[in-house]
Specification:
This protein is an alpha/beta fold and 349 residues long. Helices cover 39% and strands 23% of the residues. It binds L-homoserine (HSE).
Length: 349
């Protein structure tokens, strides 16, 4: 049976959860999926790096205590990602470092180093996909490897691969969606009477919000996701500056109460639409929706995206848009898709 050797770049919540899944469910995955996974390298800003071609003891890695680094287990307290990515024996690099919305670094370099050295990449990081997606996809093709990124939008809820594979024969005219759980949660709590700051604090406590919630509530997170969906699914060929952005900080409790009395509800909507001349208009903006609108009932941290197609009308996908397990599953779904492409097996996504 095939075993894929993988390297985990970034050992925060998402890659740790992937390691936990491999450690606790490895045998089940092997019999369900027809392949095994072995972690041969881990790098992390805090923990340093460890490269072991014979396979890393995941229980050890997951239980490093206090200020311990991989140095005490034969690795290094330093992180030289370039060297590890180039020289390790991994078939697949799982990139789950933080999203940098400015230039996508260092994740863009991580992905580039991996693809150049003939390793496939799966990532949950929006930066490389939104800002360098076309270039990195082409680099993967040149090197005969895969670049998969389902988790960059709506975590493990299948959206990108589903639309690419299952909308064959349909014309996609555009989409609109709720693509940020934090802002959706905050708007819902404000409708229930909480003030803006208290609602954000709750979202942080529940683990939905980024450490700096401006990325969520000012629409930057949705801007990246809209850019990814527009370029990947509508072949829009647009850049970040082409996606107009407005967040929810301008929506006041009075606006929310007024909408509520009129049978309407505020939502932060990310959308893209193909124009008659073939160009694509994309943006993020708070919108007052009637309660019978398909997106009005999407509550809490749930995400949803409604695709506008020619033959089916609107097709809506709804599910979790964040979370450690949900995002780790996205990486697993990427690896399943790579295996399916290699063997002709049907991917369960
Ligand atoms: N902070 C994001 C959200 C999660 O609230 O949806 C990942 O993009």
């Amino acid at each position: 049976m095939t075993t894929y050797d993988i390297a985990l770049i970034g050992f925060g919540g998402v890659n740790r959860t992937l390691a936990e899944l491999i450690a606790t469910r490895g045998e089940g995955l092997r019999s369900d999926l027809g392949f095994g996974l072995r972690v041969v390298a881990i790098t992390d800003l805090r923990l340093g790096s460890l490269v072991q071609p014979e396979g890393i003891d995941l229980s050890m890695a997951l239980n490093l205590g206090g200020s311990e680094t991989f140095a005490v287990h034969g690795g290094s307290a330093d992180t030289n990602n370039e060297s590890v990515i180039h020289t390790c024996t991994a078939d697949i690099i799982c990139e789950a470092t933080y999203t940098n919305p400015e230039d996508g670094e260092p994740a863009v370099s991580h992905v580039r180093w991996a693809l150049e050295s003939g390793k496939s990449v799966c990532t949950t990081n929006k930066g490389p996909v939104a800002l360098r997606g076309a270039e990195l996809t082409s680099l993967a093709e040149q090197n005969g490897v895969h670049f998969e990124f389902e988790g960059a939008v709506m975590s493990g809820t299948p959206v990108i691969r589903l639309a690419k594979k299952m909308f064959s024969g349909l014309k996609l005219n555009g989409f609109e969606g709720i693509l940020n759980g934090t802002s959706n949660y905050v708007l819902g709590r404000m409708e229930a009477g909480l003030d803006y700051d208290a609602a954000i604090r709750e979202a942080q406590e529940l683990g939905y919000a980024e450490a700096n919630p401006a990325a969520d509530v000012e629409g930057y997170d949705v801007q990246l996701k809209v850019l990814i969906l527009a370029n990947e699914l509508l072949d829009a060929g647009i850049e970040l500056k082409d996606v107009k952005r407005q967040g929810i900080s301008t929506v006041t409790p009075e606006d929310i109460n007024k909408a509520s009395r009129a049978g309407r509800r505020w939502k932060l909507v990310g959308s893209a639409q193909r124009n008659p001349d073939g160009t694509v208009t994309a943006g993020v903006t708070p919108v007052e929706l009637p309660l019978d609108h398909g997106l009005a009932g999407v509550s809490g941290a749930t995400n949803a995206v409604a695709f506008d197609t020619d033959l089916l009308g609107h097709v809506t996908v709804s599910g979790p848009g964040a979370g450690r397990v949900e995002t780790a599953y996205a990486l697993l779904s990427d690896i399943i898709a790579m295996h399916a492409a290699k063997t002709g097996a049907v991917a369960h996504v």
